[in-house]
Amino acid sequence: MVWSQSSALVFFVNGKKVVDDQVNPEWTLLTYLRNKLRLCGTKLGCGEGGCGACTVMVSRYDRKSKNVIHIAVNACLTPVCAMHGAAVTTVEGIGSVEKGLHPVQERIARSHGSQCGFCTPGIVMSMYTLLRNTTVPKFTDMETAFQGNLCRCTGYRPILEGFKTFLTEGDSNDVVNGVSNGCCGKKVNGGCCMSNGTTEDDEAMNQNGNGNISDNEQLFSPETFKPYDPTQEPIFPPELLLSSHYDDSNIVFHGERVTWYRPVKLDDLLELKASYPYAKIVVGNTEIGVEVKFKNMHYPVIIQPSRVEELTAIRVEDNGVHFGASVTLNDLDQTLQQQIQSQPKHKTRIFSAIVEMLRWFAGKQIRNAAAIGGNIITGSPISDLNPIFMAAHCLLELRSKDDHRFVTMDDSFFTGYRKNILKSEEILVSILIPFTKEDEYFWGFKQAKRRDDDIAITNAGMRVQFEVGTTIIKDISLAFGGMAPTTVMARTAAASLIGQQWNEHLVREACQALIEDLPLSPGAPGGMIQFRRSLTLSFFFKFYLVVTSELSKKLPYIKPLDKSLQKVVQLYHRDSTKSCQLSQVVPDGQPDYDLVGRPVAHLSALKQATGEAVYIDDIPRYEGELYLTLVLSTKAHAHILSIDATEALKVEGVVEFFSAKDIEPKRNHFGAIIHDEEVFATSKVTCIGQIIGAIVAVDQATSQRASKLVKVDYEEIHPVIVTIEDAIKNNSFYDDWVRQIKDGDVEDGFNKSDGILEGELHLGGQEHFYLETHASVAIPREDDEIELLCSTQHPAEVQHLTSHVLGIPSNRITCRTRRMGGGFGGKESRAVIVAVPVALAAKKLKRPIRCMLDRDEDMAISGTRHPFFCKYKVGFTKEGRIISLKLDIFNNAGNTLDLSCSILERSLFSADNGYKIPNVEFNGKCCRTNLPSNTAFRGFGGPQGMMFCEMIFDVVAEHLKMDQIKIRDLNMLNEGDLTHYGQKLDYCTVRRCWSEVLTSSHYAERRQKVDEFNRQNRWRKRGIATIPTKFGIAFTALFLNQADRVPNASATAASAGSDLNGMAVLNACKTIMERLKPFKLANPKGKWEDWVNAAYFDRVSLSATGFYKTPEIGFNIATKTGKPFNYFCFGAACAEVEIDCLTGDHEVLRTDIVMDVGESINPAIDIGQVEGGFMQGYGLYTLEQLMYSPQGFLFTKGPGQYKLPGFGDIPAEFNVALLRGAPNPKAVFSSKAVGEPPLFLAASVFFAIKDAIKSARSEVGLSTEFRLDSPATAERIRMGCEDEFTEKFPTPPGGSFKPWAVIV
């Protein structure tokens, strides 16, 4: 076969034919769509297939089944060359604002499922693809479709509610007018009880004024939605339908650096592999794409075998099912499910284990594209399927041009980390997955940080075969992932168990053998050593129970499992989520045009749903535009000896390299409070990821490739200070920013206390993970003017600091921000790290410059929420009254101050949460460490301070054996109380929120049910907890509490955007209305247009600059005088969880929230903020964990390693009520801020988890007084539930080993 002549790429996009005879084989579909076709609705969120922002639909005609197959894929990983002969549909192809929205687009927009909107097009396309395959889907179909999509804003609930209107009657009949899907199915007085407020579950809400759902309150009206008519969908391109030419032909695409081959015959494939033995075989590109993008790998030859029949064949044979190596995981899943339905149950036990494992394998988009063979050959030590394949003894078919052999997949297949027995010229052709025999049992296990779309921490496949009709083990296979550089088999354990009876004694022997088989050194890669080793024993114990349960159904002498063990063997199942959202009713007679208090979709929602909303990197390229890539430090603490960009500048297309030499020394510094950060490092670096320079080139690929060629020589400096404990040990603080707030006399309080407790607590940081990374475009204009288009929360600060660095007046710099794809505080002070270098390059080169950070770059350099550490001493009475509290609080500021001191202050202000403590001493220090500077994040230190307070209340209550509710109620604030910084509480509603959530959640009744559940179950435990919140509203920096609607805008931050800007706009409106007053009096029957025209012709100004400054605030922390806050927001939440004591897995069963937002301006937005804030807080306190090496290297630099909550993590029942009758005279239209205050309520989940762990510990006689740091990860949950398995793995003494990761 001759492959010399390059083929033309032919595919369809949104119905239009694309023919490209010069395609670049290195391009992904996303790059092609955005850069070549300018279809920018499809977004780049992560580049590794983990967020779903780039989801599109790919359609092909299956000539065997004669059906058009639609799949959702990640365009960021899908090679554009793989689209030959396919039809691609993007969000632009299904609807637009001008021509009309598709029902999917309309429903997500009008149900308030889009906030920042960056993730919306991807979610739209996941749902659209589902509807193209299943016109009336079920809720489980929808859940599966969204496993690969993330949203950081909404909390997911409104998205699900909007799309539930597409579901089958059985799944959607619990949606009541878009308000609640908790319908009881009963009728009251001839009408729905949810409409007249008399449901059993909501009786309490009626009693406290939060009932009475009326038509005025509906967050959206499904009856107004455009009906979905599947017959009106675009047709598949007839050209692809009628001819198989594009499928049957060998093709080759030659690029400058890469050649792409697609053979259609096995012989041609083998010939290619013989010619290019180190060529990469690519089907879904889900592994190779990540290696190329993030690991700087380069593969000159790529072979796509997806049209080779032998590699795509599926055959049912006598001994199992044969799958070609190119069969996708989705097709594997569907085929095995069909076999499970058609074959006897005993034959399909391996198939069932695979299907169950695939539920949690990556996201739907990845499973649609990734192939079985890729999963095997990649050889990841934490592969979800390889332990199952090995335990099942699957048969692999290997071929080369000169050889053909079959091998059993066992522990001899992998020879090292990501290495196997295949010769360089060999390929994997197929795998045979066997049927199981009647006396053979099989199960798979996996534990990850998050249930959906997550890589395993540890996993396993287990098989046992018995002598016929007995419980004597004939054969057993135990395969594990995550326990070595490869998937391994526990050979010693298996050998010791053969011939033994299947009984309880077996478990002890097996555990001892597994300990010997699966050693891990304390510093092994991946960390979590005791957890991982405990999981291996937990998995075997679960396997023992599963098999015993099955044997009891077959053998009469085997007793059924005790009731307390039965939940252990149940597969995870969750019904359709339930929810209820309650808010105020607008007054009777309020005109329809008056939108205040009505749930109106925000202005950009429709554009976001159609992909027409323009974000920074969507802006069309300017003539002569260049791309900038930052050059980053690879050392945490070192002198810079030299910087050599010679090799980088030799790369064709590179224009320039900038470094500190290109900036005046006095202008090379910036900072949010003090100028202690360098634009480009000069002589020293103080963290990994510090910016050393910038490469500017003709395009992103060239710029990024060249940036890696810049050579920097270092001389390392010791010590490297990474953790707070390191900083304390080395006295490394920002000494000018030590803070203290005192009230009363703590020593006198301790003397009067009945009890005193002391301890330490730690809260981890949190990555912002806004879906749109930092991005800026700078355009040089005449007279040294610079126009900056920037994704920032603080355009004025970007303008000011750019002016400072460039040495030009601020009035020559225009900074524009139309919208952001998320910010959460991370774009308040840190946007300058991209904007300033971009502006500098634009000024120097006189050409437009663009930069949008890749996800790993953004996470490596832009900082996170501050990790906090606290030493506490608390004094209390025997009745539970907290008398005295001393806190020494430390935050990990990083290598520069940024906003750390203000964040520390906020934590000190918030450390009383909702309680009156007469004697306090709160001390705070900012730790100077060798990490990228940490920064603002939603809550700004408040969630950390409040969390310490609640942790201490939990400790005291447990010590006194006192009810957690009672101790909180006993110490709770009241109207008129003074805070520890002397501010009087006016309009204090914390007790109302508290009592209402206790009533509406039926806390007392559910507490009893939780206790009963725990008595009946040994290895599954439930917990329930309720907490309040108090959050002060204002910038703690006084000068920021102002708004001028034209110049000098303060940051959109501190939850004060509506308060400040809303009042400024209102003042401007009042000015204009006052000017119009004479014309209204002169023409009282006129219309608005008449009065405006009359004023214009009378030369009256029709514009006004509104200005507002928050009155009567300003606090001196040294003298403790003044008011730091304008007012307070209050709320309370109750959460119930269930944990798996054997694995650390957990599920949030129900959450109830009552939130005081004053008189809501827009209930839909306010409820969305409450839910979104809660889910972000849920991530903070349970799932999201930053992992750093002892040298300061961040391991968690993308969604593959860093897990934020997904669709499947929202509470199974999620109820939110906005407190009624609580006006706020201190803000616009009596409203209250809502962005930050709800986040802390997610701590209720943390304390519910701790409550469940207490039950597990109590059952085995362990103390219920124990330390649980945040986040409450699976590791911490499992190791908190100490038992006979965990006790076998004691923690080695500190200093005896070098840990893989440290808690910073």
UniProtKB/TrEMBL annotation:
EC main group: oxidoreductase
Transmembrane spans: none
Any Pfam family: Fer2_2
Entry's family note: Belongs to the xanthine dehydrogenase family.
Coarse class of the protein's main subcellular location: other
Species annotation: Allacma fusca
Domain named FAD-binding PCMH-type: residues: 253-438
2Fe-2S ferredoxin-type domain span: 7-94
EC numbers for this chain: 1.17.1.4
Assembly information from the UniProt record: Homodimer.
Molecular function GO terms recorded: 2 iron, 2 sulfur cluster binding; FAD binding; iron ion binding; molybdopterin cofactor binding; xanthine dehydrogenase activity
Keyword Iron attributed: yes
Keywords associated with the record: 2Fe-2S, FAD, Flavoprotein, Iron, Iron-sulfur, Metal-binding, Molybdenum, NAD, Oxidoreductase, Peroxisome
NAD in keyword set: yes
Catalysed reactions, semicolon-separated: xanthine + NAD(+) + H2O = urate + NADH + H(+); hypoxanthine + NAD(+) + H2O = xanthine + NADH + H(+)
SMART domains, A to Z: Ald_Xan_dh_C, CO_deh_flav_C
Protein known as: xanthine dehydrogenase
